[in-house]
Design goal:
Blueprint: H1 2-12, H2 15-27, H3 30-63, H4 69-112, H5 116-121, H6 124-166, H7 168-215, H8 217-222, H9 226-278, H10 284-325, E1 346-355, H11 357-362, E2 377-385, E3 389-393, H12 400-407, E4 415-420, E5 423-424, H13 430-436, E6 437-440, E7 449-450, H14 451-455, H15 464-473, H16 477-480, E8 490-491, H17 500-512, E9 518-522, H18 530-544, E10 548-552, E11 564-569, E12 572-577, H19 579-585, H20 587-595
Helix pairs in contact: 1-7, 2-10, 3-4, 3-6, 3-10, 4-6, 4-10, 6-7, 6-10, 7-9, 7-10, 9-10, 15-17, 17-18, 19-20
The protein binds adenosine-5'-triphosphate (ATP).
């Protein structure tokens, strides 16, 4: 859906306005770029002097005079322009990689700060591709584009001035040919920009397709779907290939245009110039110098025309980069309070909270799409007393996880108020809100890295002893015995060394390191063996002793002794009470309990 916005963005703003967006990246390297430009001026000067010297050489040969130091100076100039060119290349490439580096840093910062709703609608692979592939294209602007154009235009202007002095008539003829080629290339360059934006978008689609398969590779293998998935990814690759071909086709028009312009100007100058030499209007030495200047002028012109592809690719890339960096990030601009001091006995309260995911995207100007959807939570009101243990139960899709998401302020309610210690969560900075709450997701993600790194995600200064202590508190200390590396032992990309129950307990241990007064636990739906189930129950018992606990329970056995159980159905509360109360008052709870052989 973001694709649509990209194309409209590309259509609306011109290349000059997008070029402006490159400036902050370039401004950071003013010194290096100025140096490169100065080297380019020197190089241009060294090149421009050469035809003048050749003119002198021819004049002296015609007059039968000795060449003397002229040849030496010519040789020195040739070497000098080579050295200057090498130095300039190094400075530019160095600046190019530094710009890519800066762009990647900025982009990663923006991506990680996007509101959670953005991750619902964006594809991870596409975001990864923006960081990896789009930023790389910025490199071309500097190394090939900008300074080639700057240095080239100096040589161009210098050569033009010399040609004007030598013979204005021949210059006018030459320029008319050049003008035709420049106009043609300018028209084509717009198409290049559009095509390369499309190409990058296709590369993003490809990244998303690969990411989708890799994240479910076991399911894909087990379903014997490898070949089908390869065929699907192949279609995305083909899309990128075809968009690349379009760029190649347009470039194929651009590149020969400069060649044709050179040949045509050369032939015209040769014909007209020969006639003017024969009629005595100009000398042979002047004609030779004019032709050398002509080549000198066309040279940069062709490299600038050639660089149009890379510059336009970069402008396409900057569109995709800015599409993320200009997206609003999760901000606390509207927030008034930094620290929450309890002003109520309720640790958490929901007051008439209604929420629909559609609201979050309806006014989404980037996608330009609206998703009017029915509310996921309707008029939800409940209180969780400090130090108590609350369970939320209900059928799949009832809205249980959404309750926790609102408490974490991943989303804000459409109406109603969510309070933490009596304060509206919208008035508390997210950092301080989240420091009060430990949150264990349903799928308990274990990040690639070591057990220690996984624990220290919430508290990077935690000591080894503290890490061991929290592992012990969730009955996970045995895991450390599995490898001589202990805390430094790695867990696989998806925590393959750990069972589902162990992953969940590792995630609980992680949040405990921060000793949050409130713990939200979205219990894993995956079935646990009886030993793991007992271990998880013990862990929950141990941690709930000192804090407020809200558990989304899929196993009623883990909640029978909760202080309060909230039964949700279709986003509404259909019952609140203890296990024994609900067995009498709430038919849905009765059914759930019977189903789980608890009644
Ligand atoms: N990010 C989202 N964007 C749009 N709709 C969503 C999103 N997350 C959940 N929903 C929808 O909201 C409803 C409630 O989802 P939620 O995950 O809160 O239910 P749940 O009771 O926790 O379910 P489960 O027990 O299966 O985890 C569902 O219909 C779901 O499809």
């Amino acid at each position: 859906m973001s694709d649509k916005s990209e194309s409209s963005a590309a259509g609306e703003s011109g290349s000059s306005s997008r070029f402006r967006h490159l400036l902050p990246y370039l401004a950071a390297h003013k010194t290096a770029l100025t140096l490169a430009l100065m080297l380019s001026v020197l190089g241009a000067g060294a090149s421009l002097v050469q035809p003048l010297l050749v003119n002198q050489v021819i004049g002296r040969v015609e007059a039968g005079q000795a060449l003397g130091s002229l040849v030496v100076i010519l040789a020195v100039l040739v070497v000098l322009s080579g050295v200057l060119g090498g130095l300039q290349t190094y400075i530019l490439q160095r600046t190019g990689v530094a710009v890519v580096f800066a762009a990647r840093r900025g982009l990663v910062r923006s991506i990680l700060n996007l509101p959670i709703k953005e991750f619902d609608r964006r594809r991870t692979g596409d975001l990864v591709s923006r960081v990896g592939s789009d930023t790389t294209l910025l490199y071309g602007v500097l190394t090939q584009g900008l300074v080639d154009a700057a240095g080239g235009s100096l040589v161009f202007i210098g050569a033009l001035t010399a040609m004007l002095i030598i013979d204005p008539v021949m210059l006018a003829l030459t320029l008319s040919v050049v003008a035709i080629s420049v106009v043609t290339v300018t028209v084509l360059s717009k198409r290049i920009r559009r095509a390369s934006l499309e190409q990058q978008r296709r590369v993003g689609d490809l990244g998303a397709a690969v990411e989708r398969v890799l994240s479910g590779i076991r399911t894909v293998r087990a379903a014997n779907a490898t070949e089908r998935e390869i065929a699907k990814i192949d279609r995305q690759s083909r899309g990128a290939f075809e968009a690349g071909l379009e760029v190649a086709r347009i470039s194929a028009f651009i590149v020969p245009i400069s060649g044709i312009a050179m040949q045509a100007s050369f032939l015209i100058v040769l014909g007209v110039g020969g006639y003017r030499v024969a009629s005595g209007t100009i000398s042979l030495a002047d004609l030779v110098a004019f032709i050398l200047f002509l080549f000198m002028m066309i040279g940069p012109l062709s490299s600038v025309l050639g660089a149009i592809t890379s510059v336009n690719q970069a402008l396409g890339a900057i569109t995709r980069i800015r599409e993320v960096t200009t997206s609003p990030s999760e901000t606390d601009d509207d927030v008034k309070i930094d620290l929450v001091s309890p002003s109520s006995t309720a640790a958490v309260s929901f007051e008439e909270v209604t929420f629909s995911y559609g609201d979050e995207t309806t006014d989404d100007e980037l996608s330009g799409q609206s998703h009017p959807s029915s509310p996921v939570l309707v008029g939800l009101s409940f209180e969780v007393q400090r130090g108590s243990r609350t369970a939320i139960v209900g059928p799949s899709g009832a809205g249980k996880s959404t309750v926790l998401a609102l408490l974490e302020r991943f989303y804000d309610p459409s109406s109603g108020v969510v309070r933490l210690n009596g304060t509206n969560v919208r008035d508390i900075t997210r950092t301080s809100l989240r420091s009060q709450i430990g949150y264990v997701e349903q799928d308990a993600p274990v990040l690639a890295g070591t057990i220690g790194e996984n624990l220290r995600l919430v508290a990077d200064s935690a000591t080894d002893d503290e890490c061991r202590a929290v592992l012990a508190s969730v009955n996970l200390d045995a895991v450390l015995g599995r490898s001589p590396m202990g805390l430094e032992a790695s867990v696989g990309e998806d925590g393959v060394m750990l069972s589902g129950g162990e992953r969940q307990r590792l995630a609980i241990a992680r949040t405990l390191l921060n000793a949050p007064p409130i713990l939200l636990l979205d219990e894993s739906t995956s079935s646990l063996d009886s030993l793991n189930e007992v271990l998880l129950r013990d862990a929950i018992d141990a941690i709930s002793a000192q804090r407020t606990l809200i558990v989304i329970a899929h196993r009623l056995s883990t909640v029978v002794d909760a202080d309060q159980i909230i039964v949700l159905d279709g986003g509404r509360i259909v019952g609140v009470g203890t296990h024994s109360e609900l067995l009498f008052t709430t038919p849905l709870y009765q059914r759930l309990a019977e189903h789980q052989l608890l009644a």
